[in-house]
């Protein structure tokens, strides 16, 4: 081959392409070791059945879209006891992932949720990996850096299991059950990039929808929920984010999306005052939280939904919980929603007795507190 500048440029370009492909395929990835067998892929016939409202109602199974901790076998199939018949990885352009469901200050500040998305305006930007600002004006913690729609898994489950899912997600107090268009991926290879606009044939799946209410707007009569003044402020805990990233790896979601999830920064306690605040806050409110979860497990109906009186009680308790945090705990003990720079010497800080509270609650109760049963 002639040693000309043009040929040298071509060789350099080819080398760079091969190098990038090699890095994509060979880079170390989190390997999820699961004791659960992977269900078969949801059949084309069942997916097409979902497109007909009449036929879907006659079906004996439900197609349920999961995107948060229900991606994780430990949560979905272990603690919640769901036995999916089949599953398929999907992209949902009309929704985007958010972390705006209030949880428990100092321990589980927020949980995963979804919001409506405009696929024409919410597109990847060149500065997607640079430091962006969120609505609060502070440096973001990388949760808003994905611009290709929601990525999740659609499980085919029985009617009984679907009712149990609703019960463990707050008894229907916080959500609307909606149908969304889900697009299967063209390839099962997770190294392939996620398309900006999917071209596969969509199908319908159920998901529990609890959007934030715009400022000044009235909350919906059905499916309303508690929300913080700045819905983008709180950070999810490291424990909760690990459930999502572990689930994404177990389900072999696209590596591109897994990278985004692994890059989200968790809430971290950085001061002794915050640790003390966590202890005092949970000492006061934990008995009421356990009471709500226990009552919900006992009184939910066959569809997994809580009675109206329990929804009102739940709303009152969680509103009081956050009001005491805003008015007393945050000014005295520090931020329980977002990581702040350390303001005292914490080299000798020891975990509080409540550090592993979520794990102990999940193992002792039939309901996970991923989505707190709060209503607007």
UniProtKB/TrEMBL annotation:
One MF term in the entry's GO annotations: gamma-glutamylcyclotransferase activity
Keyword Lyase: yes
E.C. designation(s): 4.3.2.9
Biased composition (Polar residues): 124-138
Active site annotation, chain numbering: 169 (proton acceptor)
Chain intervals for the UniProt region annotation (Disordered): 115-141, 336-376
Binding sites annotated in the UniProt record for substrate: 64-69, 240
Entry keywords, A to Z: Lyase
The protein's name: gamma-glutamylcyclotransferase
């Amino acid at each position: 081959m002639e040693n000309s500048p043009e040929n040298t440029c071509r060789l350099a370009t080819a080398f760079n392409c091969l190098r990038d492909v090699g890095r994509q395929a060979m880079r170390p990835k989190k390997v999820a070791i699961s004791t659960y067998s992977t269900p078969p892929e949801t059949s084309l016939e069942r997916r097409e059945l979902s497109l007909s409202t009449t036929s879907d109602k006659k079906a004996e199974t439900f197609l349920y879209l999961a995107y948060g901790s229900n991606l994780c076998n430990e949560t979905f199939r272990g603690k919640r006891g769901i036995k999916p018949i089949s599953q398929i990885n999907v992209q949902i352009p009309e929704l985007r992932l958010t972390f705006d469901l209030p949880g428990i200050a100092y321990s589980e500040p927020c949980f995963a949720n979804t919001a409506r998305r405009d696929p024409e305006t919410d597109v990847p930007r060149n500065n997607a990996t640079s430091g962006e600002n969120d609505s609060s004006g502070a440096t973001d913690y990388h949760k808003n850096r994905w611009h290709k729609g929601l990525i999740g898994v659609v499980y085919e489950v029985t009617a009984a299991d679907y009712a149990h899912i609703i019960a463990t997600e707050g008894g229907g107090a916080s959500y609307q059950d909606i149908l969304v268009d889900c697009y299967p991926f063209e390839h099962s290879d997770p190294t392939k990039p996620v398309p900006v606009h999917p071209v596969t044939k969509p199908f319908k799946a159920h998901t529990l929808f609890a959007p934030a209410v715009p400022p000044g707007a009235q909350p919906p009569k059905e499916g309303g929920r508690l929300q913080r003044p700045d819905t983008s402020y709180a950070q999810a805990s490291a424990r909760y984010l690990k459930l999502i990233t572990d689930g994404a790896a177990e389900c072999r979601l696209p590596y591109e999306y897994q990278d985004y999830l692994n890059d989200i920064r968790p809430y971290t306690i950085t001061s002794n005052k915050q640790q003390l605040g966590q202890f005092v806050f949970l000492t006061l409110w934990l008995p009421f939280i356990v009471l709500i979860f226990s009552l919900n497990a006992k009184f939910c109906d066959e569809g997994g939904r809580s009675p109206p009186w329990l929804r009102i009680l739940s709303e009152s308790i969680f509103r009081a919980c956050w009001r005491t945090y805003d008015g007393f705990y945050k000014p005295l003990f520090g931020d329980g929603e977002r990581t702040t720079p350390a303001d005292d010497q914490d080299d000798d800080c020891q975990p509080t007795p409540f550090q592993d509270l979520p794990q102990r609650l999940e193992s002792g109760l039939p309901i996970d507190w991923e989505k707190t049963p709060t209503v607007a």
